[in-house]
Design goal:
The chain is mostly helical. It is built from 5 helices and no strands.
């Protein structure tokens, strides 16, 4: 990944020293607070990384996120087996 990548520059990582896609917490931060460019880059990386797809799926299944069904559909498009009708944590927005 290039040092000037959208993921590395993402505002979602405001409390991180570096991007660690092995961390489900970091992935959840990107899914919740990332910019469209960061999401595009995450999707492109997930295309060739089955372990990253599984971490994204785990975040969507357990963390209340905006647009969870969007991420499920994106993962399904990459060939990941997902249940688009599964119950998901409810995102109540910012309180």
């Amino acid at each position: 990944m290039k040092s000037d990548s959208a993921l590395r520059r993402s505002q979602a990582l405001w409390n991180r020293k570096h991007l660690e896609l092995g961390s489900m917490e970091v992935i959840a931060q990107v899914l919740e607070h990332g910019e469209l460019e960061a999401w595009r880059e995450l999707y492109a990386l997930a295309r060739s990384d089955p372990a990253l797809r599984r971490r994204i799926l785990a975040a969507v299944e357990t963390v209340p996120l905006p647009f969870p069904r969007f991420w499920l559909a994106a993962l399904a498009n990459l060939g990941e087996p997902v249940d688009l009708g599964m119950p998901l944590p409810l995102d109540l927005g910012h309180v």
